[in-house]
Predict the structure of HTH gntR-type domain-containing protein.
Amino acid sequence: MSVSDDLHTELRRRLIAGQYDPGAKLREEHVATEFGVSRTPVRVAIQRLVEEGLLEAAPNRGAVVSEWRDSDTEEIFELRVLAEGQAAAWASRHITDADLDRMDALNMQIAHAVESKHKAYLDEVQSANLAFHTALYEACGSARLRVFGTNLLEYPLVIGGFFIYSDDDARESVRQHTEIVNALRTRNADWARAAVTSHLCAAIERFRKTRKASRNAIKPSPRCDGPSIEIAEE
């Protein structure tokens, strides 16, 4: 890999992991100094990240960390519907019984974690859910689709999807996972694609519902123990 490839990989990892705040500026000279390289590979790496939507071009040799909008999250989900549905269809031709048993085990792990609610259970759910969906791409038989699809899974708003689940939502997701595995066991490509599509479309609707509820939430009025007072807005 070239120096710019290495820089792109590391900066992308940091951006996806949330190490830079939205709106923060990445200056070429600062990145070059940190990594001990010239500005040229830094400029190339930043441009690639701008093209990927993780950064936004800014004047004076730098870029700004992109802020995620609701439309960005929906776009990722919609891309996943297309990519993961295709991955499931192709995986029906290649997936092994051992792969399917592992997906079943991951789904059971999610179910047990949701019911037990042990300390850090959400981290366990998130990790197992990511592994479940990654398994579809690993079994699809296409290196190109695997790379594209797993990149989509890396985005934090997608990976963290279980954090906006109610218990009933999580149980329904487990049921949908079971249907995906059952479809793959029958080697029925159309059923596998439909099961994944239904699962991800439900996730999109859950996200929309959660965001709508958040926007409609009424901020509580200030309270105090003494006499009521009026607070003027400046």
Q: What stands out?
A: Residues 189-216 form the longest helix (28 residues). The domain at 3-65 is CATH 1.10.10.10 (Arc Repressor Mutant, subunit A). The chain is about 70% helix and 5% strand. The chain has two domains: 3-65, 70-214.
